[in-house]
């Protein structure tokens, strides 16, 4: 009878479906053999001999092989062997203080097995450990119950909640939330209401309330009802608690009436303690998120309150969320109030974007604001932005008029340039180009003009954009280099590559501009691939951040050439210091960060042409973490050759992690090999 003497022998048994051999190996005097045989039996179909072998490992006392009982418990959980429940519970009760610390595998296994016996046993253990040793074991048991979600645990958990506050309250609440039983609703409401609960516990309670079934909302209570118990949470200083409580209140008519009262009270008294600004903002945000919930036959009061907060609130967040709510709730009727709010410098851009998304946006009014001369600078800026967002071609002439008006404020002309770029009108290219190359104009205006040229992409403006990319004005350069991505031609690609290369020289390209050049090459796509490949050959000379961006850009390309470059970078030997390189030797190899980034990108591809470079990542010189990613990518390829390479790698191991076992299971499944009947 064959005796396993190494991991390679165990892998051969696994791939042969040899349950008997693995059972025999669990009794080996060699630590690694017995340990990994136990792990591999967890992948069996649960034949009696495998289960008995695992029970034998689990019951060992003073066993000479540390970890064997841990792995036996995990394997029995993986097999969902119900007969193991009493043994696992005994480990929790009798041996939780032992050196082996088997609490975690026992709890994990019980959660995987499930069933009434496991639930009852875990609740008994929980009662004991919260009495004599609160902490680690109690947390593990509660996490196990949260995964099992047993309704029968609700009543005991509620009792535990009141008896052992505050030691385990937050985790018990999270467990109740995971179970999602309506019977917990009343207790969770009380915790959400009580100021003594503390910020974290109140948030956990409100989060758990969200997990209750919609049909069971609100939880049945005599007095007070659910809604008043959420008032405190709705104005809780923690914004997330306030947001969640607002969403819960919006589920019922009484709750929505309270939210309306919050808007009313805040409009009468902005400093009212029961309607602080963040609570008002939470109401507005939820109206914007779910306007249909607040639909009423006569929405006039809602409109008026939202307009009031948009106009009068001293808090920008409230004004911004009120604008969002008004646009979502009132639709086209919000146009007048939003046009007025364009004068609010702190929220003007956000309001302009909302106006652009209105059904039937007020195009004529925006044009009048832009060109009529009565609007403030902020309003004109906002009007230009909104016109660009609307995308109406008829606005181009008005925007061009503003752009070419040298007497107009720079901020308004800048917004007009942005809008013309958004419209992508070719007739705007020539005026924008003239503005971009006019060094007498403000740098900010020239920068936005060249950005717009990149969005339009008119071929005859490329020389202007190239000249601006080499401008002495930093703001102009910063916009011109990204703008080159709008010109997918050889001249632009070459210039972008030079910007990246020159970043390695003293007083060369600024880091931000070099990063923008790499990003632009990625946006250009296939025409830029030869330059990206050439840059990868000199990746050692680039900064770490820039090299990572270069690798990410190559990773986004599906071409075989990009795959080949990633494979070459990933398989490069580790970098050496200058003192390690002898005279006459070649340039130093790629740095560790580049190898890691290239390896990660390569494993994400998982295509057949990656087979060889992925296999090279399994060698001893690869960076930590590359092996698992490479194995998973080979499994994704899924060919017989890829599977054989995974097996060849696993046979060389001196230890097996969980992902090794998962890989063996995947190959066995593909080959229809079963461990058991």
UniProtKB/TrEMBL annotation:
Gene3D superfamilies: Leucine-rich Repeat Variant (1.25.10.10). Coiled coil: none annotated. Signal peptide: none annotated. Transmembrane segments: none annotated. GO terms for molecular function: oxidoreductase activity. It comes from the Bacteria. Pfam families: HEAT_2, HEAT_PBS. PANTHER family: DEOXYHYPUSINE HYDROXYLASE, PBS LYASE HEAT-LIKE PROTEIN. This is PBS lyase. It comes from Streptomyces yokosukanensis.
């Amino acid at each position: 009878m064959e005796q396993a003497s190494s991991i390679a022998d165990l892998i051969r048994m696994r791939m042969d479906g040899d349950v008997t051999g693995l059972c025999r190996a669990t009794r080996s005097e060699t630590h690694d053999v017995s340990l990994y045989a136990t792990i591999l039996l967890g992948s069996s179909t649960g034949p009696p001999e495998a289960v008995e072998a695992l029970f034998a490992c689990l019951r060992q006392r003073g066993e000479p092989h540390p970890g064997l009982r841990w792995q036996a418990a995990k394997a029995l959980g993986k097999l969902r062997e119900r007969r193991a429940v009493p043994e696992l519970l005994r480990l929790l009760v009798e041996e939780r203080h032992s050196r082996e610390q088997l609490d975690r595998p026992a709890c994990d296994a019980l959660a995987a097995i499930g069933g009434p016996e496991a639930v009852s046993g875990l609740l008994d253990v929980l009662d004991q450990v919260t009495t004599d040793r609160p902490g680690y074991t109690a947390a593990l048991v509660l996490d196990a119950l949260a995964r099992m979600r047993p309704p029968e645990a609700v009543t005991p958990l509620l009792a535990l909640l009141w008896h052992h506050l505050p030691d385990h309250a937050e985790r018990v609440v999270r467990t109740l939330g995971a179970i999602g039983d309506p019977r917990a609703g009343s207790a969770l409401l009380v915790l959400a209401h009580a100021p003594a609960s503390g910020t974290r516990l109140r948030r956990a309670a409100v989060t758990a309330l969200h997990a209750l079934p919609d049909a069971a909302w609100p939880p049945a209570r005599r007095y007070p009802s659910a809604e008043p118990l959420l008032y405190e949470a709705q104005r809780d200083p923690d914004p997330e608690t306030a947001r969640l409580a607002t969403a819960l209140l919006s589920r019922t008519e009484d709750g929505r009436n309270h939210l309306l009262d919050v808007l009313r009270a805040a409009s009468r008294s902005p400093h009212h303690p029961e309607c602080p600004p963040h609570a008002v903002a939470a109401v507005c945000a939820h109206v914007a998120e779910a306007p249909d919930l607040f639909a009423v036959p006569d929405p006039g009061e809602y409109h008026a309150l939202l307009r009031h907060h948009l106009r009068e609130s001293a808090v920008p967040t409230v004004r911004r969320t009120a604008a969002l709510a008004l646009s979502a709730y009132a639709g086209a009727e919000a146009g007048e109030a939003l046009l007025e709010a364009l004068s609010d410098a702190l929220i003007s851009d956000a309001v302009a974007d909302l106006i652009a998304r209105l059904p039937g946006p007020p195009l004529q009014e925006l044009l009048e604001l832009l060109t009529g001369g009565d609007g403030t600078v902020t309003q004109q800026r906002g009007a230009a932005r909104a016109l660009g967002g609307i995308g109406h071609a008829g606005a181009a002439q008005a925007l061009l008029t503003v752009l070419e008006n040298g007497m107009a404020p720079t901020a308004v002309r800048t917004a007009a340039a942005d809008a013309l770029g958004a419209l992508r009108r070719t007739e705007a290219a020539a005026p924008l180009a003239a503005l971009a190359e006019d060094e007498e104009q403000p740098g900010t205006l020239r920068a936005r003009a060249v950005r717009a040229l990149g969005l339009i992409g008119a071929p005859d403006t490329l020389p202007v954009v190239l000249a601006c990319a080499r401008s002495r004005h930093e703001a102009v350069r910063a916009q011109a280099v990204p703008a080159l991505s709008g010109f997918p031609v050889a001249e632009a690609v070459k210039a972008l590559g030079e910007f990246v290369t020159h970043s390695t020289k003293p007083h060369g390209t600024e880091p931000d501009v070099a990063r923008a050049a790499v990003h632009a090459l990625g946006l250009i796509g296939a025409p830029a691939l030869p330059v990206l490949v050439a840059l990868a050959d000199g990746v050692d000379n680039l900064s770490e951040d820039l090299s990572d961006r270069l690798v990410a850009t190559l990773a986004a390309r599906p071409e075989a050439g990009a795959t080949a470059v990633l494979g070459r970078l990933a398989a490069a030997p580790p970098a050496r210091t200058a003192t390690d390189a002898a005279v006459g030797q070649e340039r130093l190899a790629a740095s560790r960060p580049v190898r890691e980034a290239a390896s990660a990108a390569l494993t994400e591809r998982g295509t057949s042409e990656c087979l060889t470079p992925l296999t090279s990542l399994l060698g001893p010189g690869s960076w930590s973490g590359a092996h698992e990613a490479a194995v998973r990518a080979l499994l994704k390829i899924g060919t017989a050759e890829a599977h054989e390479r995974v097996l060849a790698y696993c046979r060389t191991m001196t230890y097996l992690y969980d992902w090794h076992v998962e890989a063996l299971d995947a190959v066995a499944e593909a080959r229809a090999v079963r461990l058991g009947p």
